[in-house]
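cache lookup: miss for this entity combination. No prior model stored, computing from scratch. Input as submitted by user K.M.:
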Amino acid sequence: MEYEHIREQYEAQLKTWQQNPNWNRSAGVLFHFHSGFRGGAYQILKSDNPTRRSFEQMTAHIHFHHTIEDEEFFPGLQRKFNIDKKAIEKLEKDHVTIGNKEKEVHDILYKKENATQAMHEYADLLLTHLAKEEMLLMPFLLQMRSIHDL
Ligand SMILES: [Fe+2]
Ligand SMILES: [Fe+2]
């Protein structure tokens, strides 16, 4: 589980961000979206036999979220702040990897085989991505008094 390696670091940073007076106006908006996805991922991980339904509930809004990030959110942040281009590209690559893992899960389910391991891998990829994305972007978002400033 890659997420276990960064979890502590992420949670410590989260506590600091949440004390920032701009939290509710900017960074917290991204956190709020991510929280829904995290809830789904934890559900999957705690189950020894997660259902297709719980997997689909987790993934339902993720394509939309990733598309908005790739097309609007990341370019907007890059225009406003001097964010490392390579770091943003890594996040975009994560979106592709996560999409591919979802396809893998669906292929396994289509063959009526057990997709538990692939679903767990998906959840780990997602949790790791969400934490890394926040660790890169939150320091910039916290400089904004509104998410609409992009
Ligand atoms: Fe993302
Ligand atoms: Fe995101």
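stored under new cache key. Residues 66, 69, 91, 95, 129, 133 surround fe (ii) ion (ligand 1) (CB under 6 Å).
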